[in-house]
Structures are given as C-alpha cells and as structure tokens.
Amino acid sequence: MAADTNALRIIPPSISLDYFKNVVVTSRAKERGYNFFINGYIHAVKLYTSTDKSVEITAKCYRSMKKSEDPHKINMTINYDVGVIDDSHCSCQAGLSGTCAHTTALIYTLQHYKRLGLNQVPAELPCTSLPQQWHKPRGTKIQPEPLSSMVFSKPKPTPRKKKPVYVDKPNQT
C-alpha cells in the first residue's frame, strides 16, 4: 500500500456495482448490502493511492449476527483507469468470492459519498455525539398484546449446578 488519504477524489465518480466485471453479484448480496449501508454498518473506511492508477480501500463492517465478535474486514482494489474492481475480499465466509453483502455495502457507501459531493471520507462521530436511540422501536418483530392476554407465573426453581461453599467454623469449647 502506498499513501494513506481520505480524499474521495481518487474514487471514480461513476462507481457502482457494475465495477464487478466477470463476476455475478447475487440479488441477495445486493439487498443485504444495501441494508448494511442504510443501517450504517460500514465504518473505518480508509483509502490508499498507489502508482499504478489504482486505489486500495480498507473498511470494516459490523456483524449482523454475532455482535460481540470483531467486525468483518473488507479489502478492495479499484482500477480507476479501466473502471473495474481488480480485487476484493472480506473476512466473512462468502467474502472469498469478493461479492458478499459486505463488499456491496462498501460500494453503496462510496457511491453515497460521491453523490453527496463530499471531498473526504467523513469522520466517525462517537456515540455520545449522536442523539439517544433507546426510544426507537426495534421493528415489527415484537407485537403489542393486551394485558388481559398476558400470563403471569412464578419462575420454576432450577437445581444449582454447583453446591454452595460453606466455611467451617472451628469448634469453640
């Protein structure tokens, strides 16, 4: 890798999923990638220029399932003379093909930056600088129910896995 930069001028203005030449991007990867982009899963985007008319991009994508694990690492090389993605891969299982949902989310993110006319990759804001989020509903997965249909019961006692530790007291006579 060569010079580290945040300048978006090195990204082609017409970047899109069409830059994946001779590789099929599935509709599922496009849909999931768009969802990752919309929900802000792509972060830590870094651009590197090299001398052979290409730009190397690294980014991270938060996991959609195992949230406590490290984010996926995405690496991509775009040849901006020809307008193709020379190499792309991700640390996920499907990322070996280079066309997983995380790589498509990175393309959508770069495309968004270009459409906004940004000159640099935006700096990430800390969560304390963003509005609070706890009032937002999680979605339609949990439906409200009337109180009359709720069932209340005592929890069932479960046997202890380990016996409690007792401290022996010395005999006092």
Mean pLDDT: 82
- Order of strands side by side in the largest beta sheet? 1-2-3-4-5
- In terms of DSSP E residues, the strand content is 15-25%
Estimate the helix proportion, in percent: 10-25%
Shape: elongated
| Span of the ends, CA to CA | 79 Å
Structural classification: alpha+beta
What is the number of strand segments?
5
Number of helices: 2
Q: Report Rg.
A: 25 Å
Describe the protein in words.
It is a single chain. 16% of the residues lie in helices and 20% in strands. The protein is an alpha+beta fold. The chain has a domain at 3-121. It has a 5-stranded antiparallel beta sheet with strand order 1-2-3-4-5. A hairpin with a 4-residue loop joins β4 (72-79) and β5 (84-90). It is elongated. The model has no long low-confidence stretch (mean pLDDT 82).
Question: Summed up, what is this model?
Answer:
The chain has 173 residues and is α+β, with helices and mostly antiparallel strands. The chain contains two helices and five strands, in the order E-H-E-E-E-E-H.
Layout of strands and helices, then pairs:
Layout: E1 3-5, H1 27-38, E2 42-49, E3 54-61, E4 72-79, E5 84-90, H2 101-116
Antiparallel strand pairs: 1-2, 2-3, 3-4, 4-5
List keywords for this structure.
single chain; 173 residues; alpha+beta; 20% strand
